[in-house]
Amino acid sequence: MKRFKGAGVAIVTPFKNDSSIDFSALGRVINHVIKGGINYIVALGTTGESVTLTKDEKQAVISFVLETNDGRVPLIIGIGGNNTQEVVTSIRHTDLTGIDGILSVAPYYNKPTQRGIFQHFKTIATWSPVPVIMYNVPGRTGCNISAETCLELAHNCENITGVKEASGDMTQIMKIIKGKPENFGVISGDDMLSIPVIAAGGIGVISVLANAFPAVCSELVSNALKNNFKSAREIHFKYLEMIELLFTEGNPSGVKAMLSFMNICQNNVRLPLVPVSRTTMTRIQKVIEEVSKA
Predict the structure, then answer these.
(1) CB 125 within 8 A of CB 157
(2) What is the CB neighbour count within 10 angstroms for residue 86?
(3) Which helix (H) or strand (E) holds 4?
(4) Which of 70, 136, 180, 226 is buried deepest, with most CB atoms within 10 A?
(5) Inside any domain, residue 208
(6) Rounded to whole angstroms, how far apart are CA atoms 271 and 73?
(7) What is the pLDDT of residues 185-225, one digit of tens each?
């Protein structure tokens, strides 16, 4: 997990006005975040709108990110779902050469028991040729990976090397950190909780904000990991409203609006997502101007 310590970024998938993938813009995103000091990239996650991409599009994104990154930073790709066998099939049929890890979301909609969640991830770990990071985001999945289940997987599945925790439950997160094996990493899945998770013993964040402000996020996480929480807090509070605006009308609608102001990608998302309202767009522009002046 040393490769995934620090500030990771869940990159967007830019689209043209006709909803096709804008690979030129994707290249700008990748170079922007690497130049900003991001430690690793996560492609095809929630922020990458992976659920609206076809299999061919996903493979095209993987190939493009690999080529553009050119080994500069570690790369994680999202492969998850609520059909365990289908996830395994996707892993087996995806060329993972050059990929450093898989981020796999907890199974959604089915509402499995904790035993079912354990077996789901154990099966994925058995078939994956690269390390697996679990993604716990019950606000989206309707299914929580409990601290007990997470620790059972951490201790019994060598290939499961970490968890992206976005439950928002600091008690649960601290229980995982307290009981985890030494080589298992706990990563904040929420920009808002980066500092408290790191303070409790987490190893960093997989950020949405870092698409637009990679240098800021890198500096915040670096300070927190060095126990320089005063500087980390100053950065966090300066960008507090910006983080809130990321999710006011859904992710990645918020961050794509920010990126459009920076001329990095167009403000296009795929249905059922829609661009943010004019009111939120105005607020985003105002806050970008304010943080740029400060």
Answers:
(1) yes
(2) 11
(3) none
(4) 136
(5) yes
(6) 31
(7) 999 999 999 999 999 999 999 999 999 999 999 999 999 99
Q: Which of 58, 111, 122, 164 is catalytic?
A: 164
Point out the catalytic residue in the list 40, 58, 135, 239.
135
State the residue range of the domain holding 112: 2-228
| Phi, psi for residue 88 in degrees, rounded to 5 | -60, -45
Rounded Cα gap, residues 128 and 154, in angstroms: 15
- C-alpha closest to that of 219 among 210, 206, 232: 232
Q: For 265, which DSSP code?
A: S
Model confidence at 163: pLDDT above 80: yes
Which pLDDT tens digit goes with each residue over 228-280?
Answer: 999 999 999 999 999 999 999 999 999 999 999 999 999 999 999 999 999 99
CATH of the domain at 117: 3.20.20.70
- What is the mean pLDDT of the segment spanning 145-150? 98
Provide the percentage of residues in the chain whose pLDDT is more than 90. Answer: 98
Task: Report yes or no: 284 and 258 within 8 Å, Cβ to Cβ.
Answer: yes
One-letter identity of residue 96: L
The answer to whether residue 243 is domain-embedded is no
**Is position 135 annotated as part of the catalytic site?**
yes
Q: Is 108 a catalytic residue?
A: no
> How many CB atoms lie under 10 A from the CB of residue 12?
26
Distance CA 217, CA 224 (A): 11
What integer best gives the mean pLDDT of the chain? 97
Which residues, other chains included, contact 27 with Cβ-Cβ below 8 Å and sequence gap of 6+?
64, 68
The phi-psi region of residue 201 (left if phi > 0; otherwise alpha if psi is between -120 and 50; otherwise beta) is left
Q: Determine the residue type at 177.
A: I
> What is the widest separation between alpha-carbon atoms in the chain?
52
Q: Is the pTM of this model over 0.90?
A: yes
Residue 35 half-sphere exposure, CB side, CA atoms within 13 Å? 9
